[in-house]
Write a structure and sequence with these properties.
With 292 residues, the protein is α/β, with parallel strands linked by helices. Helix content is 36%, strand content 19%.
Length: 292
């Protein structure tokens, strides 16, 4: 009798355990369990507020001290393609000193304004071989890349949680990014994508790429997208070049020059966070891109 009574109870217990929702700890953008992070006892917390131009300068400074980049500057090749964030990278790595806007190709600016590049001579991509400027075309440099060599190409959209970035492409042949991917997608060189958190979106960029690239709809002022994954370099990565800290986004945007800016929560020991504060002083007050 006891056995007959117990069997239904065991069956019900098994069913209830199977029906329970599978509760996994939420993951942060860096893949760490948020439950674990929230239990950390940080010694020091600092809020870092960056304008768009300060973010670009910070990204460039982070890249300039990155160990892998430094190694390629000493022993290999680094290619810097045209772009706004890449302008700052070229200034840090190659001492670029040209009118702002000349080291830019595709660009997004207010529709009511005249193109800032009008009448401006465009600079070519920069190729550094063992840290020195090389008289070499972009195409030739790509063909000579070794597996560990680096090419910098920025993006127009970012999904940081998925580590995705999307480049707007207007050229019929796919432009700069299509040329580099013929090599980097096959292990010839590495594409690092510097992109600011101002360009963040929650959209899956591969899904948006399907719409822009595969639609048969009539196009008007619409470009295609080229999406990459896993190679983004933002303000978060830049901060971590200088200190052993945790970094979280706590606010986006603002007013009085902070439009498009980002606020970052920097957490860790007092010594490590103060290292970040020192770097912030170096980028603080960076002029707007076209007001250098």
């Amino acid at each position: 009798m006891k056995r007959r009574f117990l069997l239904p109870i065991v069956a019900l217990l098994l069913m209830s355990s199977c029906m329970r929702p599978n509760k996994e700890p939420g993951l942060s953008v860096e893949g760490k369990a948020m439950d674990t992070l929230s239990q950390k006892n940080y010694e020091y917390i600092f809020t870092l507020r960056l304008t768009v131009s300060e973010s670009k300068r910070l990204i460039a400074k982070g890249i300039a001290v990155n160990k892998e980049v430094r190694e390629r500057l000493e022993n290999g090749m680094v290619i810097i393609t045209l772009g706004t964030t890449n302008t700052y990278i070229a200034e840090e790595l190659a001492g670029l000193d040209t009118p702002r806007g000349s080291f830019v190709t595709g660009r997004i600016y207010p529709g009511y304004k005249e193109d800032f590049q009008k009448g401006m001579k465009r600079h070519s991509e920069i190729v550094l071989v063992k840290g020195k400027m090389a008289d070499m075309s972009y195409t030739d440099a790509l063909a000579k890349m070794e597996p560990q060599d680096i090419v910098f190409k920025g993006a127009n959209m970012l999904n940081y949680a998925k580590r995705q970035a999307a480049v707007c492409v207007g050229a019929p042949d796919g432009g700069t990014v299509a040329k580099l991917r013929r090599y980097t997608d096959n292990g010839r060189g590495r594409w690092i994508c510097p992109v600011g958190l101002e360009k963040s979106t929650a959209q899956d960029l591969f899904e948006i790429q399907k719409i822009t690239n595969n639609s048969s709809a009539e196009r008007k002022n619409t470009v295609k997208l080229n999406v990459t994954e896993g190679n983004v370099y933002t303000e978060i990565e830049a901060v971590k070049e200088f200190a052993d800290v945790d970094v979280f986004v706590t606010a986006k945007g603002g007013v009085d020059g902070a439009e498009g800016g980002v606020s970052l929560l920097v957490c860790g020991s007092k010594v490590e966070v103060q290292k970040v504060e020192a770097v912030v002083r170096q980028v603080s007050g960076e002029p707007d891109f076209l007001k250098k």
